[in-house]
Description:
The complex is a heterodimer. By secondary structure, chain A is of the alpha+beta class. Chain A has one domain: Sulfite Oxidase, Chain A, domain 2 (Alpha-Beta Complex), CATH 3.90.420. Chain A contains 7 helices and 10 strands. Chain A has a 5-stranded mixed sheet with strand order 2-1-10-5-6. In chain A, strands 3, 4, 7, 8 and 9 form a 5-stranded antiparallel sheet that branches. In chain A, 29% of the residues lie in helices and 23% in strands. The radius of gyration of chain A is 22 Å and the shape is elongated. Chain B is mainly α. Chain B has a single domain, classed as Transmembrane di-heme cytochromes, Chain C (Fumarate Reductase Cytochrome B subunit), CATH 1.20.950.20. Chain B contains 10 helices and 2 strands. Chain B has helices at residues 2-10, 25-50, 80-108, 111-116, 125-129, 144-166, 172-175, 178-181, 186-225, 231-234; strands spanning 54-55, 69-70. In chain B, helix 2 (25-50) packs antiparallel against helix 3 and helix 6 (144-166) packs across helix 9. The longest helix of chain B is centred in the C-terminal third of the chain and has 40 residues, at 186-225. Classes of the chains: A alpha+beta, B mainly alpha. Chain A binds chain B through residues 44-45, 47-49, 51-52, 56, 59-61, 64-67, 69, 73, 75-77, 79, 131, 133-141, 211-214, 245-248, 252-253, and chain B through 48-49, 51-52, 54, 56, 59-65, 77-78, 81-83, 85-87, 89-93, 168-175, 177, 180-181, 186-187, 190.
Amino acid sequence: MSNIVSRRKWLTAGLTAAGGVAGLSAAAKLADRYGLIPPDWGGVWGPGETLTYACQRAIVTPHAMAREFNRSEVSKVAPVSGKPPKTDPYQRLLAGKFADWRIAIDGLVTRPAGFSLAELKRFPASTQITEQTCEEGWSFVAEWTGVRLSHVLSLVGVQPHARYVAAFSYDDGYDSLDMQDALHAQTLIAYGMNGRELTPDYGAPVRLKVPRQLGYKSLKFLSRLTVTDSMKNIGKGLGSWQPEGGYSWYAGI
Amino acid sequence: MADSVYSAALGIRDSRVSHAPRHSLVVRITHWTGTLSFVALVISGFGIILSHPRFYWGETGGVGTPSLFDLPLPFMLGGPSGWGRYLHFQTAWVWVANLVIYVVSGMASRHFQNDLLPAKGASEWRRHLRFERPRPEEAHRYNVVQRITYLAVIFGLFPLLIWTGLAMSPALTSVWPWLVTMLGGHQSARTIHFFAAVALTLFVVVHVVMVWRAGFRQRVGAMITGNVGDMKEDA
């Protein structure tokens, strides 16, 4: 009698475990299809990162806007984080006032293109007064002017299976945004700050502006954009140079 | 022998009642999961602070702007805030899940009503505040100071920590701006989060001192096994 009971127990436990594993793997596939798995999902910190990213992708709608401020709330001091690169070709471009600079946009696009600073400025401009929050804890409010990344992407024609827009900078940094953040109305290729040209300290000639994430996602000194369906073959495959240095890829926190 | 003493003091007729565990299984598991999470959150929170040990009030603040106060700590750039943030957010998930399990089970089992809502006419609080050792029969229930403190931590401090933590998320405040505007800005949220964490740490220190005074082995044993045990063993 007790033998039968224990056998039934084992059978139930086994089926439950098998069902659990199958359920988990199905859930993982589904989550990946809906873009709920971040590129840095592996490792010790993967579970927390994946939970945070998946939950925020479920909660944060594509049209939710980062808070905007009045011009009177613009900070008088904007701390500089990361000095401009001292090396060629950046210094040469800077000496020429970025007249020879062009941003290349390639990858999964129908019409790969390159745009000069003057061309970017001829596109419809978008201005926002938003807060930049550093992972360290400090923050400032500034006015940013630029062209929406979504506008530039629409010009080159993003292919339907694209999942990330990777950005590269002259200080050898790279990062990436998922399509929701790349196409977000507040995501800019910014060339102006507080009504002036963007200076080298703040990322000249252009930087990303991603106000729904921490400051480090707003990559400075941009050189190239690549549209891709996977971040596996870029850098160490973690989606950004940030996880390589110990910081999470998704920084909406 | 000890059981009958307790039963007499509590006026319990049915001796089986005194064999009911002092702490339920859910309370014990969530207590120790919460303890581990707390330690990890304090360590990682301290790591994050080390990258910028200054606090501000209002929306913005940074080097070059006046601070509310500075902790006497060095600025350690690019160091502990990386693993600190990973550990903090991963543990926060464990801690929140743990808290949800505890609160839902506590409501379902009427743990809050029966064991934590202050009883009418409870008067042991004077002795508790004088750090007197509890009487043996008090090992089976909480006195009024404990009840009020636990309720304040569970339903006041914990939600405040979660709220001020979420208020620092630029993505979540795009959906729910009131998370941060009600607190007076991003830097205010950070500062309140810090003070709430300090308050929780003070609670834990006092809690451990009280457990020590009441009989460390017996009380910790009760939180592990569920049983209060024999007072003689403890002595």
